[in-house]
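In response to a reviewer's request, we include the raw inputs and outputs for one of the modeled complexes. The two entities were modeled together in a single run.
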Amino acid sequence: MRVGVVVFPGSNCDHDAWYAVTRNLGQQAEFIWHDSQTLGQVDAVILPGGFSYGDYLRCGAIAKFSPVMMAVRKFASEGGLVLGLCNGFQILTESGLLPGALLRNRDLKFVCRPVTLRVETTNTPFTASASRGQLLRIPVAHGDGCYFADQRTLDMLEKEDRVVLRYVDNPNGALRDIAGICNERRNVMGMMPHPERASDILMGSTDGRVILESMVQSLVAAAA
Amino acid sequence: MSDLPASELAKVRSILQREPTETELGIFTVMWSEHCSYKSSRLHLRKLPTSGERVLQGPGENAGIIDIGDGWAIAFKIESHNHPSFIEPFQGAATGVGGILRDIFTMGARPIAVMDALRFGPLDQPRNQRILEGVVSGIAHYGNCFGVPTVGGECVFEPCYNGNPLVNVFALGVFRHDEIFYGRASGIGNPVIYVGAKTGRDGIHGASMASAEFTEESKQKRPNVQVGDPFMEKLLLEACLEAMRTGAIVGIQDMGAAGLTCSTCEMGSRACTGVEIDLALVPQRETGMTPYEIMLSESQERMLLVAESGREDEVFAVFRKWGLDAVTIGRVTDDAMLRVKNHGVVVAEIPNRELADEAPLYDRPHNAEPYRSAPMAAPAFASSDLQGDLLKILASGDVCSKRWIWQQYDYMVRTNTLAGPGSDAAIVRIKETDTSIAMSLDGNGRYCALSPREGAQLIVAECCRNLSTVGALPLAATNNLNFGNPERPEIMAQLVESIEGIAEACRHFETPITGGNVSLYNETLGEAIWPTPVLGIVGLMKTALPVTIPFKEEGRTVVLLGGLGDCDAIRFGGTQYAKVVLDQLWGLPPALDLDYEKRLQAAIREIVTAGIAESAHDLADGGLAVALAECSMGSIGASIDLSTSLKPEIALFHEGPSRILVSTAVPEQVERVAHAHGVDAVRIGVTMKEELRIGNDSMTWIDCPVYRLREVSEGALENQLSFTHV
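The model returned the following structure tokens for the whole complex.
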């Protein structure tokens, strides 16, 4: 399978995502520059972590206007798999591909540490290989990871089984401990933790692989 | 306008054979400032060992370069941003990170790790809390956004840093041998190209500010501090590395201290060429800037490069892609002069070499005894509560967990951090090889205040021991010398003694110094900091899962390599026990046997590499008791029996070096290796669940659940910061 990793000016987890997909999972990956109008021949897209366009104004607020995001929107509307990690999640909410917003962390400080997540649903292409209730040890590293949405949206997400990952030890004050959600069609997911940082045993945990592997398996299943 | 002393002004006149213009005077003032010219320290820095078979580049370039095999190399250096961080903690620290990162990538290396050595006044003063919080968020802001992991460091609190916090930033980058670039303006006629951020009025005379003591007026120097933009720096990094790959770049240097002045004359001087630029072509952020201001601006995120004539467009295309300014502002000439024009009119014309390399050199008087105020004799002391003493030390600023600090740093970005903050040494793997780089940063002003020479040696030994404890072979070092006013002979004596101590120890451990930084005039209102040399030492190891500090399994033997050691009362005066429990400072630092230390390090490297230790942790601040507590902060503790004639305070808390704690399932194998190296290995106890118990055959001194040790250590910094905020 071939995964496209979008590179915005200021992306800094792009190589990490590329490395996890190619070296840890043995799949193919390529970089897609932010001013590209098309995605080329990719089966899935990762919006990596970092500080796209310096995260000036608001995290992800400038990235949503980049040419590549037009292509990502089109790709998603055709059912393509889009995974936003950290800054990628922020870009997905700013772009309207996912509901809600990521606000400044509760204690106003950047936080980098491993957290424990619970898989809330396996009914997504990104968690299909996991089991419901499975606990994953994956790092977070962000200043703006506090998930926020109005009551109605939150209730809707719960009702539609779209809260994919929840913090067991909430590091940022996210409402209802939300760490990752998907869209209505379930082909777009955003999450604040970094599965690409937990895909290599040398980094201390391989719990993140189940997210990337699920994505690959889903593509394989769809292609079959 | 000029701060040049009369003797230096006379030297300027003799170089130019005329009166200098205002711009020329400004140029000389910054280039000959202490910060840029090392005029007080240069004479003594020559005593440092700088060569070795792995050294590809020693001092004199933007960073030192070390061969790590397989065609790969690392560039690393440490630099201070002390003065700016006092005036404006957030931006001062942020631009400190930015500056050292540019030093690394200007050589062609991609930065893969940063560490910081920090010193503040005690946290019971709200101002010090504010400085700490500002500095930490400044470092986090810059490093996190740039995308380099901050993998370790150290942080110490002493009253002498009250008006003079220290912010020393270490950075390390990696590249292939054929990707190394130097700051040389070679090739007569080649274009000189300015890239990156536009020039503004910020930071003018920053280098001179960093070369003077603080007075009451210093707070008005805020405009001298630069403002950092890590996003711009990230673009500059990617653009520079990409431009280098075109093959069209001949030489490149960042604009750091003394900005355009320093980069032009140094590049010319190194290549024995001249550089001619026209300031009207320099991208400017403000209108009406004078030549003086443009030449002395320290605006951040700028680089100067020399390209091959005719290939400028290849370079411009790359910078355009990254949305950055790239403008030809001049040419390389054959007359060895720095010629600065403004709209075609010459405003400065100075011989490069005289400006860059022949700055005044002072042999400042240092025949005094190194300044110290501490008494030599030990006071009487006897503890009634050794467990209480241990908890007090674990909760103290120097010893407690620095989690509150390093959790604000992205220490994992680039997915190479095998061991991060809180480890004895940080380990960063090089993905393209099977090698990893270990690095350690250490300083100890307390020891150096008692004896600058012995203190400096202890620091080198400690860094090398940290590296060896994780299994890495120490390779090379960089140092940051933080001292007071060198014009005072007793301060100058501290500096000289420290340099000689470092030189001696670095020779012994075969870790040449490949570069570094000297920060003098760290005084406020006549009060100097303690002599504070900081060492950053790097080592090499095979990539593997690291052996870490916590005990892993119960029922394992705890072995103390190096043994219980010995310490008389005089050598106990610089310990954390003396500081935290007794609130005193006296005597001398712990005694160091360089030969024994080296054998111990060889032994632990062999033990760790052979996989026969389940955990390993070297003894440092707080001695044996603190090290045992730190090993117990997982869920496994230990029962320790110390049969010794030493009095318990000393046995538990003396800081004698050359000692490492390991836990092992095969103690006889550990002993065999230790003995083969002529090193003591003493079985002092057995690991057990959830409790740390220390005593001898008749008494129990400490008996504490491990969660309590962890709680006290991890909560301490936050507790100290939770009081009054201003």
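As requested, we also summarize the result in words. Chain A has a mean pLDDT of 97. Residues 209-223 of chain A form the longest helix (15 residues).
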